[in-house]
UniProtKB/TrEMBL annotation:
This is NADH:ubiquinone reductase (non-electrogenic). It catalyses: a quinone + NADH + H(+) = a quinol + NAD(+). Coiled coil: none annotated. It comes from Pontibacter virosus. Its EC number is 1.6.5.9.
Length: 448
């Protein structure tokens, strides 16, 4: 029997400066890949053993891709001789002690010379515990797999009921949040409704399937340009998505979504894509945190510390151009990670560090086949086929690993010509906690 008390981080002693990186996202891997192990011992701590390309999670959730095509094992990424003093540990970090220069984990403590916090974000439910309990977030691979199983269980059950009210609740899908995740998920469901589901479930009238996109602001894709928002709204409406602007979901009990003002939607599926907050680490003083993110200077040093850094979505760097911090997309994390690796090498040589200057490479969102929007540098706004091709190219190139690029590209080419999603499998039936009706259904058909 495994004795947890006998586990430890088991990191070898070193005479080199030890850099501890918390988080294996875009920021963390870009620092680690560029730090020379002859100069540093690099230790990465994460609760999952892979780096994931989260902008494509919605495609895993809607059966467009398998999870291993958007993820790469961290040990594989750092397995060559080039990273001989790199150490990865699959462990949860409980907190840090800046005075003792120590990281606390569930299996022991680890001293550091330099600490890099790259923990990213987590779902923000804005204090609504009922929504948190009953909705589907979309921030991790398990979230996407749970949602995928749930979606196809809904379709299976809709094909087996003659009760019109029950069937309608199974065919109503509510997506909360009109940002890229919400828009892209709504578009993917609309394409499934048109091209795939009528063939798979000929006994179900999918004209009754409703896809609601609920956004609290007055336009979809608020971070992007008004031109992109206008085009996106047009595309969604053409695809039959019901878009509700200036609308807030006040509650969801697993069966009824209540919108502020009293409107109710009978649904067994509510996807929560309405917001994120920083995945903070305990131990930093309150004055180092603002708006749920860690305050950093232009070198990504945490306020009040010269040996602790924060990069990516968790970092809040105020500049004249970005008074509210950089956008929560991959590029700031990638660029900050690359620069920080250079600055750490400068630091140990006693050289002056370089200030971070974000290079905005634009924003993209895809709504469906030949439907996408792009805000590019130079105040260039694209829509339709050219934006769609740009989105495909950028996302393939951003994937880690040649295999993943090849698998995703081949999947997309196959789907372009066939309209097929090839991963419509319920591998592990999903039951929301407390859903006794669904559990009874699972027990009836999932017997050994």
């Amino acid at each position: 029997m495994l004795d947890v008390d006998k586990l430890s981080l088991n990191i070898p002693d070193t005479t080199k400066p030890r850099v501890v990186i918390i988080g294996g996202g875009f920021g963390g891997i870009n620092v680690a890949q560029r730090l020379k192990c002859k100069d540093f011992q690099v230790v990465m701590l994460d609760r999952q053993n892979y780096h994931g390309f989260w902008p494509l999670l919605y495609q895993v959730a809607t059966a467009g891709l398998e999870p291993d095509s958007i993820a790469e094992p961290l040990r594989k990424m750092f397995g060559s001789d080039k990273f001989e003093d790199f150490h990865f540990r699959l462990v949860k970090v409980n907190g840090v002690n800046p005075i003792a220069k120590m990281v606390h984990t569930v299996v022991g403590d680890l001293a550091y010379d330099y600490l890099i916090i790259a923990t990213g974000t987590k779902t923000n439910y804005f204090g609504n515990d009922e929504v948190k309990k009953n909705s589907f977030p979309l921030k991790q691979v398990p979230h996407a797999l749970n949602l995928r199983s749930h979606l196809f269980q809904c379709f299976e059950q809709a094909s087996m009921t003659a009760d019109p009210e029950l069937q309608q609740s199974l065919l109503n899908f509510v997506i909360v949040g009109g940002g890229p995740t919400g828009v892209e998920t709504a578009g993917a469901l609309a394409e499934m409704r048109k091209h795939i589901l009528p063939t798979d479930y000929p006994g179900v009238d999918f004209n009754r399937m409703n896809i609601y996109l609920v956004e609290g602001m007055d336009r979809v894709l608020p971070p992007m340009s008004p031109e992109a928002s206008e085009k996106t709204l047009k595309y969604l409406q053409e695809m039959g998505v019901v878009v509700k602007l200036n609308a807030l979901v006040e509650g969801y009990d697993g069966y009824v979504a209540t919108i502020k003002g009293g409107e109710e939607i009978q649904t067994q599926t509510l996807v929560w894509a309405a917001g994120v907050q920083g995945a903070l680490i305990d131990g930093l003083p309150a004055e180092a945190v603002e708006r749920g993110r860690i305050l950093v200077n232009r070198y990504n040093q945490v306020l009040g510390y010269d040996d602790i850094f924060a990069i990516g979505d968790i970092a809040f760097m105020k500049t004249d151009k970005w008074p509210k911090g950089h956008p929560g997309v991959a590029q700031p994390a990638i660029q900050q990670g690359k620069l920080l690796s250079k600055n750490l090498r400068r630091l140990i040589k006693g050289e002056k560090m370089e200030e971070f200057e974000y290079v905005d490479k634009g924003s993209l969102a895809i709504i469906g086949r030949n439907r996408a929007v792009a805000d590019l540098p130079g105040n260039i706004h694209l829509g339709g086929f050219f934006a769609w091709m740009t989105w495909l190219f950028v996302h393939v190139m951003a994937l880690v690993g040649f295999r993943n690029k090849l698998v995703v590209l081949s999947n997309w080419v196959y789907r372009f010509f066939t309209y097929e999603n090839g991963t419509r499998l319920i591998i592990r039936p999903f039951v929301r906690k407390g859903d006794t009706v669904r559990q009874q259904f699972i027990n009836k058909y999932n017997t050994e």
